[in-house]
Automatic annotation (TrEMBL):
This is Lipoprotein. It comes from the Bacteria.
Amino acid sequence: MKPLFLSVIIFTSSLFLFQCDKLYEMYRNNVSGIELTDELIQKYVKAVKALHKLGPDIPKQLAEKGENEATGLELFHQIESVIKDAGFKDYAEFVKVNAKVAWAWNVSQGELGIEKFQNMKDDGLKQIEDTLADPSVPEEVKIELRKTKQKITDDWSHNKKYADISMNIVRPLTNNHDLEIIKRNQKEIMEAYTGIPQNKLKEIDPSLFITK
């Protein structure tokens, strides 16, 4: 490896780690003192649902009143009022809780996604293995199946490597306690985020849910 190329890799890696450290520091500074609980998640879900309902009216109000400082302040007070009605002290507290919930949510969904793809990969390989073990299947078909099996395995290894790198970066932005809270309330949070009732979400894709 050429010295210049090696120096570029070291510099890029150092810069990347520095940026991650800054992100972790900003996160810790902004959400310090916030501990997720089931009760806090209930308030959060209530606030998010209310903000969803308020959201469609905002463009209409801007169009009617114009985008000026007074209108912006009025809309902010509306948003903060909705947040307070849900049980939060103020907008700032909601933002901190939102950061905590959002990062834990992203990590939990990343873990769920990896699990889903691994199950799909395992099911696909099992079907191929069952077919390969069938003596009635012609050898030329088995040759192609072995190629497919190898490709599935290689693709999985390649994608899993980068998925693990991504998860290792975002995992420090949450903790096991928060993840447990998120997973326990996953249905309610997803309903709040999407604006779609739980029964409809289950019809769309039952595997969306960590908890059954």
